[in-house]
Amino acid sequence: MNKYESKTATTSTEASKGYYICRPPISKDYDLPTKEQLLEIEEGDFVQLIFGSSEIAGAEELWCKVVKLAGSYAYGELVGEPRNISNLKKGDLVSFYLGDVVKIMKDYRVEKK
């Protein structure tokens, strides 16, 4: 696998892929980034995506560090360890559509529990 190849993630609901990226919920209670904020994403920024899997009934929100932008798509490296999706691990590269981003941070701080 070269530097920018990634595990396949799509916005489809095909569980055969192992995992997929979910579209963000459209709700007034969910504060999604604006189109302008999405277009300002740069390499090195941290973005949160919602991952689903055939292994879990719900979904899991995970942070990625953007390592490459390619038009309206990007590649990101997972910065946290998924709790419920065994097909993903910290450090994996995933590709995603910028419209699937639910949160953006310019620097990432891990919360200690």
What would the keywords be for this entry?
113 residues; 1 helix; mainly beta; disordered N terminus; globular; 6-stranded antiparallel beta sheet; 6 strands
What does it look like?
This protein is mainly β and about 110 residues long. It has one domain (about 15-105). The chain contains 1 helix and 6 strands. Strands 1, 2, 3, 4, 5 and 6 form a 6-stranded antiparallel beta sheet that branches. A hairpin with a 5-residue loop joins β2 (about 45-55) and β3. Mean pLDDT is about 80; it is low at about 1-15.
Mean pLDDT across all residues, rounded?
80
Regions with little confidence, pLDDT below 50 for 5+ residues:
1-16
Order of helices and strands: EHEEEEE
**Spatial gap, N to C terminus:** 34 Å
Percent range of helical residues: under 10%
- Structural class comes to mainly beta
* Tally of contiguous helical segments: 1
Give the domain tally.
1
- Main sheet summary: 6 strands, antiparallel
Radius of gyration: 13 Å
Strand content: 25-35%
| Tally of DSSP β-strands | 6
Tell me the layout of helices and strands.
Elements: E1 19-22, H1 35-39, E2 46-53, E3 59-70, E4 73-78, E5 93-97, E6 103-105
Antiparallel strand pairs: 1-2, 2-3, 2-6, 3-4, 4-5
Short summary:
The chain is mostly beta strands and 113 residues long. It has one helix at 35-39; strands spanning 19-22, 46-53, 59-70, 73-78, 93-97, 103-105. The chain has one domain.
